[in-house]
Structure formats: C-alpha cells, structure tokens
Design a protein that fits this description.
alpha/beta, 8-stranded mixed beta sheet, about 15% strand
C-alpha cells in the first residue's frame, strides 16, 4: 500500500508486473469481502466454496435480524434487500421501487431504506441534480442507487438462485473472465471504498429528452475536503472492461467546467493521465 500511495502522490504508473500482482490481490479481496469470518476462512484454506458458505450464513443472519428488529418495516426491508442484485445489474443501476410493487412510493419505503443504511447493510447513493459547491444542497432523495456495504456479500447474494456460488464463477471473477455482472461488482466495490474513505455517495443523472448534450450519467461525484468558491467537484466514471467510451464524462467536463476539480476514470488498468482526465487503477480509490 505504501508503494500504491507513493505512485498516486507522484502521478506515476506502477508498471505492468506490479499492477498485475496488485490486481490479483485486489480481486481476491473483492471476492472474499471484509467479513472477519470469511477473511479468516480464506486465509486458512484458500477455498472459495467454504468462504461462500460463510457469506451465505451471514446473509441468512441478516434476514433473521430484519425479521426480529425491523419491526413494522420488516417486509419492506426484506423486499429491498432481496432486490439489490437485480437493480444493480441494470445499465443505469438506479433503484426502482416499481419493481417491488407497481404502486410503491418512496415515502412508503423511506423508513425501510434508512433502516438498512443504519444497519450498515447498504450504502445508498443519491442523485445530486445540479452539481455545485455543496452536493447535498441539490440532492434528489427519491432518485438513488443502492449498493451493498460488503462486495463479497453482494457476490454471494447475486448468484444465490442455485445455492452456492461455484468455484468456476469465482475463478472467472479472479481471472477477469466474467462478463455478466462484472460492472455491477466493480461499481459496488468503488462505492464501498469511497464510503470507507469518508465520502458521502452522490451520482449525477440527467435523462433529458430535449437536449442530448445535457443527457448524461456519472457514476459518482465527490467534493474536495476544502471547499473554495470554484472547482470543487470531481466526476468519477467506473469502467470494468478494457474497451469503453467516455461520452458522459466529456459532456460533464464541458458543462460544469467552472465547478470542475479533477475528473477521474476508475478502471482495472494502470495509472495514466490523458486529455485532462486521470485514469486511476481501482485499488487507488481509497486515496481519493
């Protein structure tokens, strides 16, 4: 980590061999997650199947706790909890209550959402509809994304229709061969690391039908710790694959240049800077 921090501070890549080694460790962490029992099991036996069983036991305990402690919210809390993987698989990843119940309204599920956040099961991310000095001032609390607080648990939660996640699925994630679900997993762990570094989660969404220049989706927005009158907001785009476009972040840079600090693309490649954008390897996210 000292080397990662040094390269981040000096704006230098780590080099192909070291980057590959760190990404291998990072993917192991992403699969196992941070739950102490899961970490201990993997450290001792290096067996993903046994780790998966432990994570499933934790997910079962979550469900039991929801039943015991969520009181009048328990059915709504459970509905949101079970729906998280399906919502994150979508391209936009915004949480739509209509998928739970066509008549559902945010005010009816607000308490359940706060319960899950307070229980540290989820990390909600809200739309900041007009990025400016204070992201919170323009928050649209009814448009949100709902990430799992632990990415290792999300993986077990996502593939639970057939019981245990197979060793094959874990190996595909480990060797970057999983195409389905990969974007969801990478974006979730970026959210997890941003929260762990003290950031509140915001994203930007403008689905404008009238002006295609305004139409854009930015995965995350963070603000500088020391706010000044200008140039405070950093847009973050998360890219899991090797081939990607940057349409939205380029539109955002043009539209909000007065508010802009440093635009980032968090990806699985090494550090580089190009056309005013910093391309950050995913393991450097905690340094933002």
């Amino acid at each position: 980590m000292d080397l990662i921090r040094k390269c981040y501070d000096e704006h230098k890549p780590l080099g192909q061999a070291m980057h590959r080694k760190i990404m291998d460790y990072f993917r192991q962490y992403m699969i196992v997650g941070g739950m102490p029992q899961a970490v201990e099991e993997y450290k001792t036996h290096k067996d993903f199947k046994k780790v998966d069983q432990i994570k499933r036991n934790i997910l079962d305990l979550y469900r039991q706790d929801i039943g015991k402690h969520a009181e009048e919210y328990n059915l709504k809390v459970e509905s949101i909890f079970d729906e998280i993987p399906a919502q994150l698989q979508k391209h936009e990843k915004k949480f739509k209550l209509s998928s739970i119940n066509k008549e559902a309204r945010f005010r009816d599920y607000e308490g359940a959402m706060f319960w899950l956040k307070d229980a540290m099961i989820i990390n909600p991310c809200y739309n900041s509809s007009e990025p400016s000095i204070g992201l919170k001032l323009n928050t649209d609390f009814m448009t949100l994304k709902c990430y799992m607080a632990d990415t290792g648990l999300l993986i077990s939660h996502s593939f639970d229709e057939n019981g245990l996640v197979t060793e094959e699925v874990y190996k595909k994630i480990l060797f970057d061969k999983l195409e389905f679900n990969e974007g969801m997993i990478i974006e979730n762990i970026v959210a997890q690391m941003l929260v762990a570094s003290g950031h509140k989660l915001y994203f930007y969404s403008n689905p404008s039908k009238n002006n295609k220049l305004d139409r854009m989706e930015i995965d995350f927005l963070i603000a500088k710790s020391k706010i000044s009158s200008r140039h405070n907001i950093s847009p973050i785009e998360v890219k899991s694959g090797k081939n990607y476009t940057l349409t939205s972040i380029k539109k955002f840079i043009k539209k909000y240049k007065e508010q802009l600090y440093i635009p980032y693309v968090i990806h699985t490649g090494d550090y580089k800077e190009e056309d005013g954008i910093v391309y950050l390897p995913i393991y450097m996210t905690p340094l933002l």
